[in-house]
Amino acid sequence: MTTGQASTARPSPMGVRDSYAKWRRSRLGRITDALEQQLLLELLGDVAGLDVLDVGCGDGALTYALSRRGAHATGLDPDPLMIAEAGARAEAASVSIDLVRGRAEALPFADETFDRVVAVTVLCFIPEPDRAIAEMSRVLKPGGRLVIGELGRWSIWAALRRIRGWLGSSTWSAASFRTARELRRLVERHGLQADGVCGAIYYPPRGLAAALMAPVDPWLGQRTTVGAAFIALRAVTTCSESTA
């Protein structure tokens, strides 16, 4: 799930599939997804030959990209439709990925299984984010890297979503928006050390604005997270188990 895709609730299996397809057909969706994925891959670094877990993988777009870069990629999602969509995507491209149904708060993996763990717009919809971070920390190998992509608190996108929540959207009334500082504190409570944070998506949710701003968006993201609709944080393990 990405910044834009998270803006659509999941009313039905067919609705989920249609919302992803509609988003990716739009100019806004293509540009936004590309900027977010570029940032996430940069923070993850070289994944060739590494075991990488994509928590909340949705239809597997990022899991697929990780596998194409040489990772042994595993995608996890609670939605069986999304697992099926991710499998179909990988099969059509003859790309090998592992897919598991499960939840971030109770990862079905042994301790110290993965070199990298990535979770994109997952914590903002989980009632117990500390439990999810503790689980991600648990399955990371010593020296492993966690990358989190979350919805920024201070952006035009967040303001519009808050309004939708006030008007009755169950998705956005329950969502949490965080600052870079809050994300740092969250991971540091669980034996992880934040060593990089960047922003992305500094334009309003309009295709023309995205096209005009895309060339300078990465430059802005390296300098401030204020105004970013998407905040990505990288953290590394400092111990073999959570301190929570």
What is the 3D shape? globular
The total of beta strands comes to: 7
Largest sheet: 7 strands, mixed
> With helices defined by DSSP (H or I, 4 residues minimum), what is the helix count?
10
Share of helical residues:
40-55%
In brief:
With 244 residues, this protein is α/β, with parallel strands linked by helices.
Structure description:
The protein has 244 residues and is α/β, with parallel strands linked by helices. It is 41% helix and 21% strand. It has helices at residues 13-25, 27-44, 61-68, 80-92, 129-139, 156-166, 170-173, 180-188, 207-213, 217-221, and strands spanning 51-55, 72-77, 98-101, 114-120, 140-151, 192-200, 230-237. A seven-stranded mixed β-sheet has the order 3-2-1-4-5-7-6, sandwiched between helices. α5 (129-139) links the parallel β4 (114-120) and β5. α2 (27-44) packs across α9. The protein is globular, with a radius of gyration of 17 Å.
Note the topology.
Layout: H1 13-25, H2 27-44, E1 51-55, H3 61-68, E2 72-77, H4 80-92, E3 98-101, E4 114-120, H5 129-139, E5 140-151, H6 156-166, H7 170-173, H8 180-188, E6 192-200, H9 207-213, H10 217-221, E7 230-237
Parallel strand pairs: 1-2, 1-4, 2-3, 4-5
Antiparallel strand pairs: 5-7, 6-7
Structural features:
alpha/beta; 244 residues; 10 helices; 7 strands; 7-stranded mixed beta sheet; 21% strand
